């Protein structure tokens, strides 16, 4: 059987991080929408004029909310621009951004901090005004938390995508590697059992293509102890 010339291994295409990109898009959209929603409504009065009501949106309550959304949008482009270790480092950065974005939502939902005092400061009330109350709107805070969780999951997925799985899959889709693996399987079975143990049809054909005869058995002594081809 004539030997075929060794083929050049086909380049392996890295799997595209579609899930991570989709999660980043959802996270960026969630943070942006949350920044436009009212987080806190503050009520105040100065004793001279009518009571005053001010609505504080997410961008006012947490000034970095919109910039963080833009960072996640930029991260989407960066995911396609980098690979390997750089992509893993990008995943770490995204995870940190997600953690920062989740802090204000958690704090507001948990009632941590002086909400009324902070609301009065952000509303830029007159010096003589007194805050009579502050209404917390949980929906935008929860939305920001969900968006941050999406970004965190995307970051974790990116740190766990070194491309090894796609390379392994591509390796065994390549005929050169398949033939070498089939030849190794035939030799291993022959050494262990002394005969060509049953193998799958694909392995048998790949072994033949590699120049290995799956039906060939090693020469050994006959049942009577004499060598093959030699009789007393």
Automatic annotation (TrEMBL):
Supply the alphabetized keyword list.
Answer: Membrane, Transmembrane, Transmembrane helix
**Membrane-spanning ranges:** 21-39, 59-82, 89-112, 138-158
- What spans are recorded as compositionally biased (Low complexity)? 209-218
Q: Which Pfam families match?
A: Trp_oprn_chp (PF09534)
Which segments carry the region annotation Disordered? 183-232
Keyword Transmembrane helix in annotation: yes
InterPro entries, alphabetized: Trp_biosyn_TM_oprn/chp, Trp_synth-assoc_CHP
Q: Which NCBIfam families match?
A: trp_oprn_chp (TIGR02234)
Q: What is this protein called?
A: Putative membrane protein (TIGR02234 family)
Q: What is the lineage of its organism?
A: Bacteria, Bacillati, Actinomycetota, Actinomycetes, Mycobacteriales
């Amino acid at each position: 059987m004539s030997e075929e010339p060794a083929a050049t291994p086909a380049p392996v295409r890295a799997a595209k991080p579609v899930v991570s990109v989709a999660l980043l898009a959802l996270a960026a959209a969630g943070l942006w929408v949350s920044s436009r929603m009212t987080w806190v409504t503050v009520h105040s009065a100065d004793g001279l004029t009518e009571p005053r009501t001010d609505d504080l949106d997410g961008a006012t309550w947490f000034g970095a909310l919109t910039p963080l959304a833009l960072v996640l949008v930029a991260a989407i482009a960066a995911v396609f621009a980098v690979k390997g270790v750089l992509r893993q480092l990008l995943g770490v950065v995204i995870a940190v951004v997600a953690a920062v974005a989740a802090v204000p939502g958690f704090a507001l939902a948990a009632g941590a901090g002086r909400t009324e005092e902070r609301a009065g400061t952000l509303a830029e009330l007159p010096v003589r005004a007194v805050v009579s109350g502050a209404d917390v709107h949980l929906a935008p805070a929860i939305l920001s938390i969900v968006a941050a969780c999406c970004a965190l999951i995307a970051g974790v997925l990116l740190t766990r995508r070194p491309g090894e799985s796609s390379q392994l899959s591509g390796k065994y889709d390549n005929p050169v590697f398949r033939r070498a693996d089939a030849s190794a399987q035939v030799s291993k079975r022959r050494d262990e059992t002394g005969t060509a143990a049953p193998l799958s049809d694909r392995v048998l054909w790949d072994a033949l293509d590699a120049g290995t005869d799956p039906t060939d058995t090693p020469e050994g002594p006959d049942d009577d102890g004499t060598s093959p081809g030699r009789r007393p």
